[in-house]
Amino acid sequence: MAAHLKKRVYEEFSKVVQQQPHEEVPAKKLRLTKPSKSAALHIDLCKATNPTDALQYLLSFARKPVEAESVEGVVRILLEHYYKEVDNSVRLKIASLLGLLSKTPGFSPDCIVDDVISTLSNDKSNQVLAQLLDTLLVIGTQLPENTAVTQRLIEVACKHLNSTYFGVRNKCLQLLGCLGTVDKPLTKESEAGTSIAPLRDVQNLISDYFGDQDPRVRTASIKAMLQLHGRGMKLQQTAYSQACKLLNDDYEQVRSAAVQMVWVLSQLYPESIVPIPSSNEEIRLIDDSFGKICHMVSDGSWMVRVQAAKLLGSMQQVSPHFLEQTLDKKLMSDLRRKRTAHERAKELYASGEFSSGRKWADDAPKEKVDTSGVNLIDSGACGAFVHGLEDEMYEVRIAAVEALCSLAQSSPSFAEKCLDFLVDMFNDEIEEVRLQSIHALRQISTHITLREDQLDTVLAVLEDSSRDIREALHELLCYTNVSTKECIQLALLELLKNLTKYPTDRNSVWKCLKFLGARHPTLVLPSVPELLSTHPYFDTPEPDMDDPAYIAVLVLVFNAAKSCPTMPALFSDHTFRHYAYLRDSLSHLVPHLRLPGRKQTAVLGSELSEVGSGSLESAQQFLQESLVRVSTLQNLDSPGAQDLLDFTIRDLKRLGELQTELAGSADFCATYLHCQLLLMKALQEKLWNMAVPLCLKQNAMASTAAQQILEETYKLEFLYSGLETRQVATIHNVRLQAKALQLILTARTKRGVEPLIGLCEKFLQEVELFQRLFMSELPHFQDSFVEKLLELMPRLVACKPLDLVKILQTTLRQSRFIHLKLPEQIHRASATIIEPTGESDNPLRFTSGLVVALDIDATLEHVQDPQTTVKVQVLYPDGQSHIIHPKPGDFRTPGPGRVRLITQVYLSHSAWTEPCQIEVRLLLAYSSSSSRLAAPKPAWNESTEGLPTSESSVEGTINLSKPVKVFIMPKPARR
Amino acid sequence: MPDIKVTPLGAGQDVGRSCILVSVGGKNIMLDCGMHMGYNDDRRFPDFSYITQNGRLTDFLDCVIISHFHLDHCGALPYMSEMVGYDGPIYMTHPTKAICPILLEDFRKITVDKKGETNFFTSQMIKDCMKKVVPLNLHQTVQVDDELEIKAYYAGHVLGAAMVLIKVGSESVVYTGDYNMTPDRHLGAAWIDKCRPDILISESTYATTIRDSKRCRERDFLKKVHETIERGGKVLIPVFALGRAQELCILLETFWYRMNLKAPIYFSTGLTEKANHYYKLFITWTNQKIRKTFVQRNMFEFKHIKAFDRSYADNPGPMVVFATPGMLHAGQSLQIFKKWAGNEKNMVIMPGYCVQGTVGHKILNGQKKLEMEGRATLEVKLQVEYMSFSAHADAKGIMQLIRMAEPRNMLLVHGEAKKMEFLKDKIEQEFSISCYMPANGETTTVTTNPSVPVDISLNLLKREMALGGPLPDPKKPRTMHGTLIMKDSSLRLVSPEQALKELGLSEHQLRFTCRVHLQDPHSDSDTLSRIYSHLKSVLKGYAVQHLPDGTVMVESIVLKVSSSGEDPNLKVILLSWSYQVNVEVILQKRPLYPSIGVTGVTDRHWRYT
Q1: Which of A392, A417, A448 is at the close of a domain?
Q2: Are residues A582 and A662 in the same domain?
Q3: Bias category Polar residues: which stretches (chain A) (predicted)?
Q4: Judging by DSSP bridges, how do beta strands B199-203 and B409-413 pair with one another?
């Protein structure tokens, strides 16, 4: 057999060599000149004289990919060597290679199952056995449908379960976990001749190893159980008590896995009843497990603590009684009951005596504690979060904060209770924890109302020097409910302080006040005269309109006035003037107000608001209708088609401006139609009937059109998110048309055939690529350009370039316009540079040759994967342009779909005589190979040495934001 | 039964003068060697005459272990090693070794130079003593001699504080020293693995206290300081030089950094500066945050905190000053206090406990007028705040440590008797282990059940494995056949054959015989064949053979028939079997000859053949 195979391999090898000279297609040539892997391997292995050499060959072999068709040959060669080999390490490597090879896509590993199993029964080395089982595991996971193989593998696993080597047991358990089924007992075991009693299901079998002597095996058994669960098998409740026992294991990995196990079971059987040991009471399983996991929050190993704290967050069904225990900690001093600082603060607040000076013995213990009643060891959930939040490792603290947050979201009463603890976390020593707790508080803020003393603590953080913290806090304040008028004043005061200390926070503070005002109109009302410093009898001086602090106050008041009609009566004259100004300049912060006697603005405002509130459906309908109307255009040449397109484009653009929800879709359609329009114009009849030399002007027009279409298609593809394959295919179709047009134009203008050959080939490759990528979409492309091309493909490949051009020309003109079908949601990526504002007249001076750092602050919306795609472009007046890649850390995500870029770019230039403006803008980089539909990653290993980077990939950039001008002045260096 | 003896010389039902003698497995260890702050006479040091009346201690102690650098844990060390006399090894962690001599020297200066005491240890003695110190690393197992090994665990409390595991053979003792189970701004929490010691000797300072979260206190502290600074006031924080001072410094330093504050923070010079230097060096002993960020910036290299000069106290504008000593009874802190007391904008924050009679105690109790020396009165207008920062484990912390270590017995020291009583009850109730709280000089004896390691021959193990059955379960005992050979001090378990061979003995086989008398008129051979045929019919599943030499074999049992001399009808049947359990089963379950009365079964004769 082996000899025969070897012969086959040699044949393959020699055949390849013979064919080589005849081959013409360059793409295929590359692959075929490489000698077959199996043959090379065989030769190498035969050459190896000692195990070390063989191992080296195998190692270097493993670094190269193997094609699916030659895998089987390679496997046979490897197995042959395996039988001959005496050295354990080489056998081990071969076994692992077998596993790797069976992962090759396109290769079905069921043919080697028998061989591997037979080697398994012959091998003596435990390590090799473990590796072989691992290989079987790989094979088993590759063939999940093949029940016969699965059954056999399970038998094998059962057989080896009582091995003395932990690795073998581990792998067997893993196999059982990956392949076993719970519902079916392992009936075939007795036939397989194992010593294990028949009629036991996989779960029972695995749970036997919960008590194994080796902690690694215990871990593996729990993991296998979890794997079963992960595959959708329903675990039995019997495992619960076993898993609970393992929570006290000596080894952290066992405990960690056991915590997970307990959690899984608690999610499966939340309502079943379990007895409490040493008493005859019973509780729900979810409560019991909650208590147990809470207990693990004070485990000795921090890994386990993190795990436990994380899992607590997802146990939402737990009874509120247990949940509230987690925050409970009975204080005691010298056996007297003491109140916590939280309780004291609350009492102080309730008694109306706020912020009294702290006295010594203020916290003096009160009543005597009954000695027998004190329970020092926490039973169950007691104080779990108190411990978790005070933990030494910040990982645990973060996990605890997250868990607290998610539990509080589902239970308002718990949210109320955990408020104090979260507020305390604002003072953590690690910034990440502070940030996380601010975010957590924001998420639960719908449930809570902050007390004055709590707000005080929260606001203290506003002075933090970290911008992230401050902005997170502003965000939090946007959603916060406060209880009294004093709270509003306090918040305003602190925010203004913040504004003077950190003027860059301007926008964020204003926005914060906008929400604060809109949320609490009744609380703002009584303090309006004070805020605006108006006086019933005297006129007060008019405040400076450019003062950010004054604007902040106005934003608060105006937003409150929106839902409080009595408020404008309190405004003085200049306030109305300022309102008109701010309504215009900061329209996103100042809402429309119905002001008495201010008709002008009111009319304008109401008109806008009507449009704004105009139903979304009608706009959607309009969009659909205009698309349908356009789609009736069968022929591009029909009279009036151009006009129709023109109008539709105009309509869509306007619609996008009016209806922000539909802006993405409308823009997308408009751009697409614009492409069509350009194409239509370029293909106009008379242009093509004229002799070439006579229509130079038209040629130029057509080529710019083609160029423009190309650009637009890239924008269409990469700037919009939410596209489906079908739309992408449509865009590609248009792109192909543009390319065809370019090709035709080149053919017309250039003399000679030579330059055409390359272009034609490239074009054909692209058509092929299209076919490969969008196979499934082709049925939707009836009568389209692409479809026609693909029909003609055999002819195209064969014919000469000039013929090809002719065919293209006719197809292009006959092809139908494709109706664009809109997906659910399309968003257009956009960016705005907030800073630099471009208003400064003071040039940024620096010594030439050195660098100056320019702070850039921008918001990005709907940009996918901004870390890799967004770049900053700096354009100097001399035409030099630099593209800067911001660090991944510079991107922050304050909300879904929104990204904030805060970065620095370094500028440098040689000396100028006078200051000049540079342009800074954001770019979106794309490459067609990184398109969402790019071909899957090559073969089974990471090396891509042999793979040419896809030649059709086009790298480019799209402008993402408006350019901002910055005045700079590089001075000559002083000597 | 071997036992472990623990005798506290100090710190037994008391705080201060920690010194505990432990004898385990024939080794004597002294844990800590501290002094008592409350006494100025001989009682200030532990009574070393308990160990030996006269002469040096070297012969009686195998090693001395110091848990941390506080004087109540190491203050008597030079006295013991140099004046009483001890030359053996003294173990302490690196930071303790570095800081301990500074404190000892300071202590010596106060007692000798200020109070003018004689017969006290000298600087040279401190140096000589420190030469005997062997430094320890965390989690490093140090072999003191062949049998005794010690291992240090992190204890929190102060920089370099350690818990020690002392192990002789399979007997072990853990001594915690002082420890803290909740992390603070500069130190982490105590941690120990599940070492299951025979005795856990734990401090119990806060045996009856459960503390509130540290965060509230920190936040309050920072808020107070911040508010005072904002309204332009000055803040005085009287501290003791080491430990809490560093924690508060870090707290303020990070707060200043976070909030971008500019007001100066001063630190009174001297001892503290030197100690700060060591804090900078021993970064690995601090908490996670400091350890992780020290590459960018060592947290103890304070940016905002500068050395204090006397003249700064009169500078205008807000400032924060840390000054020693902590109870405002003398020194720099009192001087500054006098200067600032008159202004209500200012504030003093007392971070610790104040002894009665000190200025600190008075102002904490709300006294508004203080009498100073020279009949001057000082009006106290500034705000007085109290903020407790303590680094001992509270009752919950102690319980948590017990849960971590899982000891078999518990022993409480370093606490007040009444409070210990409460904790003792709790421990006994919740862990059901016995708990002791000896007074000074009282010896507690705990019997241990040490496991004796025995070598087993591989062949025997393999044979046992081959017998089948499930793999050995480490948690369950299992019986097996073998011979235990005790030779010199080694114990070995070998197979019987090998034992015989090694000892040069020949094998003896044990056979049991039994005579059964029965009346039977037939001849001997007939009787035998009758018995044979009967047995054949009754014992279907067994191999029954009639051998030519006039015997019947049932498996390995031999039957012989002979007639007795006096009565030819009385036949004596001789049964003989080797030592096997199944023989008896056959005999009991199946009476040989139901038709004939069996007489001799009950009086079986046992003898060697």
Answers
A1: A448
A2: no
A3: 941-954
A4: parallel
Gyration radius from chain A CA atoms: 37
Mutate to test the interface with A, among B202, B204, B213, B304 (most CBs of A within 10 A): B213
Residues of B in contact with A333 (CB under 8 A): 208-210
* Chain B residue with the nearest C-alpha to that of A358: B385
Please report residues of A whose CB lies closer than 8 A to that of B188: 392
In a domain, A257, yes or no: no
- Kindly state whether residues A590 and A644 are assigned to the same domain: no
Host domain of residue A927: 829-932+952-971
Residues 6+ apart with CB under 8 A from B425: A371
Which residues on A lie below 8 Å from B254 (Cβ)? 429
Which positions in chain B touch A162 (Cβ < 8 Å)?
A: 470-471
Binary contact (B185, A394; C-beta < 8 A): no
Task: Give B223's contacts in chain A (Cβ within 8 Å).
Answer: 457, 460
Q: Say whether residue B345 is in contact with chain A using an 8 A CB cutoff.
A: no
For residues B219-241, one letter each, b for 16 or more C-beta atoms within 10 angstroms of the residue's C-beta and e for the rest, the string is bbbbbbbbebbeeebbbbbbbeb
The domain total for chain A is 4
The beta-carbon neighbor of B208 closest among A211, A335, A392 is A335
CB A755 within 8 A of CB A746: yes
**Total-model pTM:** 0.74
- Of B564, B568, B563, B561, the closest CA to residue B546 belongs to B561
Three-class DSSP category at A39: helix
- Written as one string, the DSSP assignment of A842-891 is S-EEEETTS-EEEEEEEEEES-SSHHHHEEEEEE-TTS-EEEE---GGGE
Residues A412 and A423 both lie in one domain: yes
Among the partner-chain residues B219, B224, B385, the one whose CB lies closest to the CB of A457 is B219
Q: For the segment A354-383, what is each residue's pLDDT rounded down to a tens digit?
A: 433 344 444 555 556 666 555 555 555 667
Same domain (yes/no): A298, A400:
yes
Can you state the percent helix, strand and coil of chain B, rounding each to 5?
A: 30, 25, 45
Residue B421 known to be catalytic: no
Which of B188, B288, B404 minimises the CB distance to A300?
B404
Catalytic residue among B203, B247, B253, B385: B203
**Parallel, antiparallel, or unpaired: how do β-strands A830-835 and A827-828 relate?**
unpaired
Residue A290 resides in a domain: yes
Instruction: Say yes or no: A435 and A465 in one domain.
Output: no
Q: Are residues A787 and A677 in the same domain?
A: yes
Query: Cα separation of A145 and A123, whole Å?
Result: 28
pLDDT in tens, A25-68: 344 333 333 445 666 666 777 777 788 888 888 888 877 777 77
Most confident of A76-85, A222-231, B233-242: A222-231
Residues in chain A: 975
Beta bridge partners of B385: B349
Omega of the bond prior to B325 within 30 degrees of 0, cis? yes
Residue A665 lies in a domain: yes
> Between chain A and chain B, how many beta carbons pairs sit less than 8 Å apart?
124
Distance from CA of B187 to the nearest CA of A (A): 9
**pLDDT reading at A193 higher than 50:** no
pLDDT at residue A1 tops 70: no
- Mean of the per-residue pLDDT values of chain A: 78
- Check A392 against B189: CB less than 8 A apart: yes
Q: Is residue A187 part of a domain?
A: no
Same domain (yes/no): A748, A766: yes
How large is the average pLDDT for residues A406-428? 86
Q: Summarize the confidence of residues B236-247 as an average pLDDT.
A: 80
CATH number at residue A905: 2.60.40.10
Residue A632 sits in the same domain as residue A555:
no
Q: How many residues belong to chain B? A: 609
Q: What is the CATH number of the domain that holds A415?
A: 1.25.10.10
Last residue of a domain, one of A448, A480, A507: A448
